[in-house]
What does this fold into?
Amino acid sequence: MSATHLKLHTAPEVPLETEVINPTVFANLSQSGIENLNVMHGNDKCHLGDFFKVTGKGASEIHIEGDLSGVKLIGAGMSEGKISVEGDVGMHLGVGMSGGEIIVNGNAGDWVGPEMSGGRIIIKKNAGHMIGSAYRGQSTGITGGEIFIHGNAKNEVGSAMRRGLIVVGGNAGDFTGVNMLAGTIIVLGELGIRTGAGMKRGSIVSLQDAPMLPSFDYSCTYHPLFLRLYFSRLRANGFKRKIQDQHITGKYKRYSGDGIELNRGEVLLFAG
Amino acid sequence: MKIKKTEIEDTFAEAFEMYGARVIITADTKQWARAAAASMTGFATSVIRCKLEAAVECEISEEDTPDGRPGISVLLFTMSSKTIAGQLIDRIGQCVMTCPTTACYNGLDSDKTVSVGGKLRYFGDSYQISKVIDGRKLWRIPVMEGEFLIDDRFGIQAAVGGGNLIIFGSSKNVALRASMAAAQAMREVHGVFLPFPQGLVRSGSKIGASYKNLIASTNDAYCPTLRSISKQTAIPEKVEAVYEIVADGLDEASIKEAMKRGIHAASEKGAMFITAGNYGGKLGKYHFHLHEIANN
It folds into this structure.
């Protein structure tokens, strides 16, 4: 498949905002047209070509190389195609995306996929805070799509999410699923504290035990059949080593909460 | 034409357009999956009185079911796309949701779908939870055992109902042996099911009756006891028993394949004569000609 390649040749000194790195924006543009796309380097208006060497052609796939930890907003508003990154990426990756796929073979900063409604983001290493979350002041986070973090994630994973799936292969920080409205968060490692605080509906699953808020009540220990379907899918998507047979066939403790809200959310903790 | 010693009549089976769904039932054990399937396919032999035709299509191994447990595939057909959703809701709700350890999934990829789990979810009395897994929406309905898991929507498609063979034997035992062999061979075709007990019908019917209000009555042409008094008798000499096999399938090709296998299997087991039921070709959309099918 043809692809457009971007290689970072000049590291930005301050955050670089690159919402133009989007297959739809690249469509029908020549290499020079792509290099001339506007980006913000701090307060300065620059061109994409000031930082990236552009080769190849075709908008359906964009391949980026380099340390992009200071590069924000890659794939913002993306609706189709694929972006793959060899290296770390900065904040706001895939913000508001509705389709397509972003794969990062490295670490990601804060705010991966905020307010996305579709598509898939895969981070092969660790990610920062606020994965798949609502922006401050907004009542709703992601409304669809999938975010797979193979490493650890920091605080407030899935804040106010309404639909979709977020998977953290390692550990998650505090306040996972805070103010969650619905959807599913699966953490294969450990959860931090105050999991599900303020959640109305939705499911938070962990393969480890976790401290629960007093506003969550234990219901029972049982085998949630639906997890088999999730785990089967996750095993096929690179999480096979972390999901063992006992996790698929085993029992989970079910806590209902948050009691200070609608109390229709659930936290499922693997019990063996 | 003859296959071995069996005479195959130059006629055709007349079949109808129906609408079909495939339901995958899984459970902790094969026994529970079978129990749910048996319950769900009860009283589902003929649309004439049952409003639905249904039977088990096949058993499915753990590797091939959505949740990795033993499964059973059930096919269900009705005469109209409008009635199939109600039948699915009733039968899954009463026969599968009630059965310990089961879950219920759509088994038919089709552009046309009907809401089933989306209706049964109300049994959850607002405690139900939906999940979208890989684009597939499911409902988790809380039950006394734990949760009943079911797909939100089930695919339906136009299908073929009423493919048939009528098998004659020199005795009841010979006719039964030949018919059972035919039924077994026909059931092995993917997408085909035989809705009657073990696939066989001993009380084949004709349209209408001497009684005004009956829409169907015994097919006296094929009743050996009426050979000497029925004006329509079609019982050859030395025939003492006749069985019919009705086959429904998801498409025309699968019915043809099933009928072909049935003709050859019945011939192997000593059927004296094989024909098929039709209405002069005026009612059914599909005509399955026995000679053409047997020779293909």
